[in-house]
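Researcher: Next entry in the queue.
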Amino acid sequence: MVKGKNIGVGVIGYGGMGSWHTKKIQEIKGAELIGIYDILEERCKLSEKNGIHAFCSREELLADDRIDLVTVATPNDFHKEIVIAALEAGKNVISEKPVAMNSIELEEMIAAAKKAGKLFTVHQNRRWDEDYLTAKKIIDDNMLGRVYNIESRVQGDRGVPGDWRNRKAQGGGMVLDWGVHLLDQLLMLKEKQKLISVYAQLTFITSDEVDDGFKTMLKFDDGTTAYVEVTTSNFVKLPRWYILGENGSALIEDWGLKGKIIKVSDWENRDAVPVLAGAGLTKTMAPRTDDTIKKFKLPKVKSDWGAYYENVIAVLNGKEEILVTHEQLRRSTKLMEAIFESDASNSVIKFED
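Model: Structure for this entry, 353 residues:
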């Protein structure tokens, strides 16, 4: 632990996420940004231009005694090597997501952290997304009664980016890019329940090398099902969240928190007037009358991504427990592996949670 002083932070990787980390670190009370290192000279020059010291090498950064915490913001295939090197240098470490290419790599990183006696965690920043926290509040506060199905999706229409995310050897593809976020959120919503089965299909519409999307159905031991979808070739957007409960439904359309909740107000009034449905009549699918339902606005939850770093700093000062734990990382990594296995075998995978 490094109690009683500001936590010095170094960032390895100064691309899009690395530069985002430096900005956030400079806003966090109790943290001090010492500098960055990137293998690309132009990024180091950009860092200096932005008033941030750029180290000449990774080794120089790791040797600096002012640095207590290292954030690793590089392509996925470099995470393990850099994380272990930083831990062996006596640094606490944050890795960008996905933490590793597979469970074997993750276990090596966890073992290195235990051997060094240092903190090792992952930047699962989308646990602080307001749409997720709103969905979580709806479920945790039992607003819909027993929730029996959760749908979570993100959708784009530009395909896979043409950088390392489009290369399999570097951990590209949407399961590891966006899936790791949505799956982590879903597992946190169902943290107390066991996941028992996984069925998934990957898509390769805009890329032959890596998955440009996927859809997966999950089943938990309390009977709840969940559907998670990522697509990069969709031109008509579906809801970000769609939650079904025994007493109502919730719709969250987008990150801007447009949406609604509709609940049953009169279960006894079950009769319905048949309506025309295509070439026939239906009573089963006839909509409820307004006097048997109530409409509510979403309980919007406000948040700040900086809370992630605030937790890490508090942990290093001995004031809090870490929020992103090794067990949570093991669970989400195993789930991503099960998704790949399910697609490859076209079968339901029994999940040993």
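Model: The mean pLDDT is 95.
Researcher: Noted, moving on.
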